[in-house]
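Supplementary Methods, section 5.1.

A reviewer requested that the exact input to the structure prediction be made available. We therefore reproduce it here, unchanged from the version used in the analyses.
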Amino acid sequence: MANLDWHNAKIIAELKIRAKKSLRQLSEENKLSPGTLSQALQRPYPNAERIIAAAISIDPKTIWPSRYNSDGTSSRRKGKRSISKKHPIDIAKEYEGDKE
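The structure derived from this sequence is encoded cell-by-cell as follows.
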C-alpha cells in the first residue's frame, strides 16, 4: 500500500504559505519547545498533529491518513506504559497477606 501521508516538505511549505510561520514559530506560539512540533513529521504525535493541521486549516487525518482510521479515530495502539502494573513490593505484600 502506498504511503498517502503528505511529504514533510509539503507540510512545511503549506505552513509557510497559509500560516506564514515555521514549525519553530508555531511551537513557540503554543508555548512548546522550539523543536516539539517537528516531531510530528517523524512519528505520531496527536497534539502536535492537531496544532499543525489547525494552522493550515486542514484536518489532521488529511495530512496523515496512515495515522487515523476511516472513522477519524486514532489508529495508534496503546503502549506498554498504558498498562497498569503492580509494583513487586505490592505483589509481595498481597502474597504475605494470603498466608495469614
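The chain is about 45% helix and 0% strand. These observations are discussed further in the main text.
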